Amino acid sequence: MRALALRSAALLAAAATCAQAQFNPDPDGVPPAFMCAWRQLAFERAHANRPDADAKVHDALQLSKFCEGSVRPDESSLPTVFPPPAAAVAVGVYVDADHGSDTTGTGAEDQPFATIQKAVTVAAELPADMRHVILRTGTFHLSDTIHIPATAHGLTIEGMAGEEAWVSGGTKLDPIDWKPYNLSGSMNIWRADLSAFGLKDIPGLRVNGRRVSPARYPNADPELTFWPTGYMTSSGSQGCKGFNVSCGPREPCDAGCGATWKAPKIAPIPNPAQTINISDPEKSRMWDAVFTHYNGGIGGTCAIYDPPFSYWCSSAPFSKDCGGCFTYNVPAGLDFPADMLQPYDRDRLVSNGQLVAWRKAHWANWHFAIEDYAVVSDENATKSSITFGKGGFQGARGGVGSDWYISNVFEELDIQTEFYYDIKAQTLFYFGNGTHGEAPTESFVATTVHTLFNVSGASMAAPIVNFTLKGVGLRDTAPTMLEPHGVPSGGDWALERIGSVFLQNTEHAKITGCSFTRIGGNGIMISAYNQYATVEQSEFAWMGGSAIAAWGWTDETSDGGIHGVDGTTGTFPRYTQVLYNVFREIGVWEKQSSAFFQAKSAESFLKGNVVFNLARAGFNFNVRKLN
Length: 627
Prior knowledge:
By secondary structure, the protein is mainly beta. The chain is 7% helix and 31% strand. The strands form seven sheets. Strands 1, 5, 26, 27, 30, 33, 36, 37, 40 and 43 form a ten-stranded mixed β-sheet that branches. The longest helix has 18 residues, at 32-49. The radius of gyration is 25 Å and the shape is globular.
């Protein structure tokens, strides 16, 4: 199989919205007239599909810079898609986050429920033509995922006509009793006891609706600062002399400024995985001239995956012309001179710290939890040593690390809007963005739920039919980089089978006119069996991972793994339609991400989508080519 990354047919706009972007979409030597002309053509095509996005597309294409006299459209005069104009529903179950009650409410318009789950449960028992849940204006903060009953065929959840309803995966931190912590010099750090909220962790934080960063080094804004800023790199800005990323899979590699990657916990040579190499024509299916047979490995260095299988855990030789292929492995940690970073409190670092790294050549990035930290001295020098725990499964190819940063570190709380949550003390620390010495007054939301709607039928034979989500905003879900990942197919992507909307065992599911913003991971996961799912006229912005992923399922571990190539069970998405959506600012955390990803899926149809400002790919199809 090959991972085939396609840019959007609707809009080839790769330029970022601010001057810190690394790459101009035009190669050197392109005539200025052409640099303007292709942008104008892309703008016209985007306008034909989604005129409401004209101002943002104008920014992404940098039309004012490349086309003299081009004027940015007035955003206030553009059509509004969310919330879309909707016909009032005469019969339905009403929900009002601010004025409803699950105790005294009846679901009538004048006696609404307070929670969506209560309304869904009641609506599922009504006759099929009355299964409407209507959300009134406001934000529904969830403490748990909304589960759609497996028998709720025909259920529609929609925003009230002319109103704006949002569903949030965050806990609203109100009230907060801020106490000064460190107000010396330029420091403006405040603390708050959050034990009353019962939060095990705060993996993400929104301040006045915007994503802010866990305390980290080097400092960076997770939404607006681009690599190489914010990373320990080979650039002169960190005082490094460069580093080598050309070493082999078992050799420690220089990571800049004298830091070295630790050898993998599970050595890839000899390969400890149960290898699969099916060349028997009775069991094998030919791919193309490069990937000639179905190969793979179970366990071993792939034990970190769910399921613990990948093509990249097989043994050499891999396939014809497969440059840079080796048995999957990731570093076990990082050693660096003790004076590179300041000393850290071990208990705090191990309970909450993370290290984020690019894979060699920047094909993907990894997140690791920190399992151990120590400062060790010998006759030569004093070094700090970090050992990785959970993580490293976010990219399918593995290999050597390169640029990196450390995150969720109390001692690095040193610039405005950074935060740190002490899990044991249940205390939030925040570097205020307001007047020095005055307690923060912003609205704070802790992202705690990663899946807002779980729409799962009982089985492939008993799917949920005709579920609709319409005219609703979805936001503020928890990041998922450290949730279990799997390798969808023979391509070099890894993925978490998670989305803010999760579809499995459905037919004719529809998501229309919705807005997804500041989602921590994937927007929509179309998992295993789904037929005729439609995502249309929606917008996806500031996504932590991919916007939409369609990922089928095959049995990759039973009977020695021989069934992994077999899709005859039909447990995969088919006839998926992705129509007239806007995808922008995709891949805040997971850089190996896309507007639409599919693997083990068939007969998808994409049309009229507007795509720009992405970490890696517009549309990514992990496909195979038949001879």
